[in-house]
Structure formats: structure tokens, C-alpha cells
Give the backbone structure.
Amino acid sequence: MENFTPWSALAGGALLGLSALILMLGLGRVAGIAGIVGGLRADRQELPWRGAFMVGLVLGPMLCIAGSAAPLEITVSGNLPMIVSGGLLVGFGTRLGSGCTSGHGVCGIARLSPRSLVATAVFMLAAGVVVFIIRHVA
Amino acid sequence: MTDIKAALIALLAGLVFGVGLYISQMVNPAKVLGFLDVAGNWDPSLAVVMGGALAVTALGNAFARAQPAPLLATSFQWPTSRQIDARLVGGAALFGIGWGLVGFCPGPALAGLSLGLWPVAQFVAAMFIGMAAHAYLVPTPGTPVQPA
């Protein structure tokens, strides 16, 4: 467990909650990323705020990198077929299941929504099984 | 003008979310896979990220519920669906498989675009195609299917 980074995890997590609070108090909306992105094409009137949120989402880490002496080193593993099928499944699955890690895992569980509790248990388990197969079986 | 104010608030929310994902290192798929790999060299960080986010969100919700309305909207749009059905479980399972394959879920994938790495862009492009495929293939419950 030498990779465990509890303090930065706690601070970063608190910021995710703060973001959800800003969006709910300001616009009355839930901070589920799959929902914000997936709703882009649904309603033209909502395009500005959804687009602005996505711009902020990319800009935030850019500011961190610009202001940091030692930026994070990021590793994306897997070949192209894995990356593409992963992206397709994440896109399709989060829309079909009405939420992702933020929408179900944070916002939904914070409301103790039974749907979100079930969805979070299912996607955590499915992801864990896939990682187990890739790393310990295949 | 409300549109501009709404966009500014959303921009701020997005910024805070992006900074949160960076500080917690959730933009790094290797970090996420380290959490999902329970049988390996387990890294519990993601659970702490969720715990911190949950605590603040739950407090925030209690505060929001005490307000008459959001700043820029007529009402709070709390999700109302209660149904645990095949769509929910099937969608979550497909999402989980994709998440386990690469270590990206939608937020970190988008935030990861800031890093300027090709694989992240490839993942995000595929994710958008997956979302579009859902919109095209799966009719929204309650709306009649349009004849072709």
C-alpha cells in the first residue's frame, strides 16, 4: 500500500463535493459528468452551461500543471483496441445506466439513492473483475 | 443574461472538479487501476476520494434543501427515478467493464485531455461515439419511437 495517498485524495475528493455543491446551489443540477456531457445534444438552451463545465474540467488540471514544479506523471496502459473498446463501453454504459462514478458514485450515494447504490456496486464489481482477469489471469 | 451567469457558475464548478481530479490523482488511470486491483498492490486512495466527496456533497445537499431555490433556476432538479431495472444494472456493468479495461471514467477522461496525450484523446473520442450510439439506438423511456 505504499502508493496510498490519503491526504491528497481527501483534499481532491472534498473539491469534487464542493463542485457538486456549486452546481446544485447555482443551477439546481447534479454534477454527474456522464449526464452533463451526454445531455449536450438534448437541449440547445442548456448547451452554454454544459459546455462551460467541460471547458472548466479541462482548464482546471491545466492550471495545476502550469503552477506546479513537478507535474503529475500519468500512465495510460493498454493498446489501441483496448482503449477504444474501453471508451465505447464507458460512453454507452454510463448513458444506459444513467450515471457514472460522479453521478451515481458520489451525488447519488450522497442522497442514499437505492438506484445509485446498486449501480455503484455493479460497476465497481465489474471493473474489479476485469482488472483481476487482465492482471492475474490472462 | 442568465445564460452567461449560468455558464460562469458551471465554468467555476468544472474548474473545481478538474482541480479536484488532478490533486487526488484520479486523472491518472494507473492510480485508478491500482484501486481496482484488490488482489495486487492495493491502493485505497480512490475510496478516500469518494469518501471526501460524499461527505461534502451530503452536507451540501442538506444546505441546498434548506434553500427555497437555486440562484439561477426555478427549482432544484433532484433525480426522481426509483426503478432498479435491467437498463440500470446492464449499463453499470458495461461501464464497469470499460472502466476496468483502461482506468478512465468520464470525468477523469475529459480532465485528462489537459495532458495532451494521444491515448486520452482516443479514449474520449470513443466515449463520445459510445454516448451517441446510445442516443441513436436506445429510445428514452416514455417517448414514442419515431418512425424511420
Remarks:
- Chain B touches chain A through 119 residues (CB under 8 Å).
- Helices of chain B lie at 2-23, 29-36, 45-65, 86-102, 106-112, 118-137.
- Residues 45 and 51 of chain B are 10 Å apart (CA to CA).
- The two ends of chain B are 39 Å apart (CA to CA).
